[in-house]
Write a structure and sequence with these properties.
By secondary structure, this protein is α+β, with helices and mostly antiparallel strands. The protein contains 14 helices and 18 strands. The strands form four sheets. It has a six-stranded antiparallel beta sheet with strand order 7-6-11-10-9-8. The protein has a five-stranded antiparallel beta sheet with strand order 2-1-5-4-3, sandwiched between helices. The chain has a five-stranded mixed beta sheet with strand order 13-15-16-18-17. α2 crosses α7, α8 packs antiparallel against α9 and α12 packs antiparallel against α13.
Length: 597
């Protein structure tokens, strides 16, 4: 066992190494692709930010260019316009545009007008001096720095003023408040900062790194005062520059560094794009690949183990099959013998059932023998009497009266013949298939055969024959036995009862079937769910009881009736009526010609 595990150990280990390699490769590919997409979005964000800053500064540059030729300012050169008027003009322009200060200076450096007071001695020390010097050459000058009067960051524009005959006569200086510009986009993503030619951060939306400087010849930034926080630069294989920093919670720990030169304003726009989402996406895709690889490895190992188990089980099964073949052959032979015996038993059972049916009919004939004797004895006595009377009437010459007696004798003979025909039909065995039969005739035959007993026991009958024949599929003799059995059971059930009322009815076409109902006023059915079980009865052999569940106390009458109705394709049911007594229902399919009609 241990040696087998050691032999199989390299397979899962190798599989795990392959899965790890696939996951790492997926991470690399996903990270590189995501980093490319991040760089594209970063360049777009940086372009929007730099365009916003240059656009904002462009408005103030245009202001300096347009205001420098104003007559109130030009008139200050020759003294034709008072200083108070020019100062008021510049103050109104500064208030409306939001600039920090505006000053009109002549070629000698004297301040001729200003929105806010500026002494002549302040210009040489002001950061705006480089812009003024450039304007004196006839070009538009720009500069930036800390305003010495307001102690704020300012961006300066200097627009030259030209004389009519040529030459520069002065310049209009416009100081833009950088703090006011930053308020519009401070805290936005990504982190953006603008550095000047010295590498100092002069404009940014992250105040933590304001005035930080770039070390000469090195990437990154260091604070102007104090120790430099941790920093590390990394160049990826695709040329992206990543900065690993610890500069505060609002700056990315690992950010993609992007830079864009802005010569128009003399600054360089830079951005740090957070790479944490990229790493998370790459890690998620690598995890998915790893999980898929582990699932595939697990399925492979499980399939391998399953194959080995199946191989061992197959070998064991083959040995067992070989061992059981002889035993199964013997069992098969035994089963064939049992099948033959069962077929013989089935044939014997069918014959026994047919014999039971016939025996039941003969038994019923035996029970009805007394009534049949009475039925035949009465017509015979009447025939004898009518014959004697007819002889006397003939002797006396009363031929018409004698003819009436002969007609009475013919009617009585017909009645006796009908009784004998019913008995013969009931006693014979019927094996013909189902055919259309008249249910009304079958009911009347069964009622006629029980007429003597009903009269003797005082049973009233509720029966109304339908108008015309009611044709259904069945066997006339077998259906007659079923009805005779149900009527006889009803009469048995009503023995000793005060009210003895038998109801027989035919319902036409209920759900495509005809229905015969036989109801009594007996005590009802003791166990409705068992009435059709063979040999179930509550009758005593010597003294039949009135529960309608047996035939001569053997419990076969209703069971035989159930089988006969089933052979017609019909259905027989028994239930207790709410008003008392039992009711049996026989349902048979309508005859095809009647259904079509």
């Amino acid at each position: 066992m241990t040696s087998g595990l050691l032999r199989r150990a390299p397979v899962p280990v190798l599989g795990l190494l392959v899965v790890a390699a696939l996951a790492y490769g997926a991470w690399k590919v996903s990270y590189a692709r995501a980093l490319d997409g991040l760089a594209q979005r970063g360049w777009s964000d940086l372009a929007l930010t730099t365009d916003r800053l240059t656009g904002q500064l462009q408005r103030y540059q245009d202001l300096a260019v347009m205001m420098v030729t104003h007559p109130a300012l030009v008139g200050r050169l020759d003294g034709s316009v008072p200083q108070e008027e020019a100062d008021a003009l510049l103050l109104r322009a500064a208030d409306r545009t939001g600039v920090m200060n505006m000053a009109y200076v002549d070629a000698e450096g004297h301040v001729l007008a200003a929105a806010r007071p500026v002494p002549d001695s302040a210009l040489p020390r002001s950061p705006a001096m480089p812009a003024y010097v450039r304007a004196m050459t006839g070009a538009l000058g720009t500069a930036h720095g800390i305003d010495p009067f307001l102690d704020r960051r300012a961006y300066y524009f200097a627009a030259p003023s030209f004389a009519v005959g040529g030459g520069v006569t002065g310049a209009l200086l416009v100081a833009v408040n950088i703090d006011a510009l930053e308020q519009e986009w401070r805290g936005e993503r990504p982190a953006v900062f603008f550095t000047d030619t010295t590498g100092e951060v002069f404009v940014t939306n992250r105040s933590e790194i304001l005035f930080w400087r770039r070390p000469e010849g090195s990437p990154g930034l260091v604070p102007a005062i104090g120790p430099a926080p941790p920093f590390r630069a990394e160049i990826t294989g695709r040329g992206e520059e990543l900065w690993h920093t610890d500069w505060g919670v609002y700056l990315p720990r690992t950010g993609l560094h992007l830079a864009r030169d802005l010569p128009k304003i003399g600054l360089t726009g830079e951005a740090l794009i957070e790479t944490a989402p990229v790493r998370r996406i790459a890690a998620l895709q690598a995890a998915l690949v790893g999980l898929a690889g582990l699932a595939a490895l697990g399925a492979f190992l499980w399939a391998s183990q399953r194959r080995r188990v199946l191989a061992r089980a197959n070998a064991l099964l083959e040995t067992r099959v070989a061992a059981r073949t002889a035993e199964l052959s013997g069992t098969n032979l035994q089963l064939r013998r049992e099948v033959a015996e069962r077929q013989e038993a089935e044939a014997a059972l069918k014959k026994a059932q047919a014999d039971l049916v016939q025996a039941g009919k003969l038994s019923a004939l035996g029970q009805m023998s007394a009534g049949i004797s009475h039925e035949l004895n009465q017509p015979l006595m009447a025939i004898r009497q009518f014959a004697e009377n007819g002889t006397l009437l003939m002797e006396r010459g009363r031929t018409e009266a004698a003819a009436q007696n002969l007609s009475r004798i013919s009617e009585l003979a017909e009645r006796m013949g009908r009784i004998i025909r019913n008995l013969r039909a009931f006693a014979k065995q019927e094996s013909s298939p189902v055919r259309p039969i008249d249910l009304t005739r079958a009911v009347e035959t069964a009622l006629e055969m029980t007429e003597a007993r009903r009269a003797r026991e005082g049973v009233t009958l509720d029966w109304t024959a339908p108008a015309g024949p009611v044709m259904a599929l069945g066997g006339e003799v077998r259906l007659g036995q079923v009805l005779l059995n149900l009527i006889t059971n009803a009469l048995d059930a009503m023995q000793g009862r005060e009210t003895r009322h038998l109801t027989v009815a035919i319902d036409r076409g209920i759900g495509g079937r005809h229905r015969i109902r036989v109801a009594d006023t007996g005590p009802g059915i003791a166990a409705p769910e068992r009435i059709f079980d063979p040999f179930y009865t509550t009758k005593e052999v010597a003294a039949p009881e009135a529960d309608g569940t047996g035939e001569e106390g053997m419990g076969l009458g209703l069971s035989i009736s159930y089988g006969l109705v089933q052979s017609f394709g019909g259905r027989i049911r028994g239930r207790n009526r709410p008003q008392g007594g039992a009711e049996f229902t026989v349902e048979l399919d309508r005859a095809p010609q009647e259904a079509a009609a």
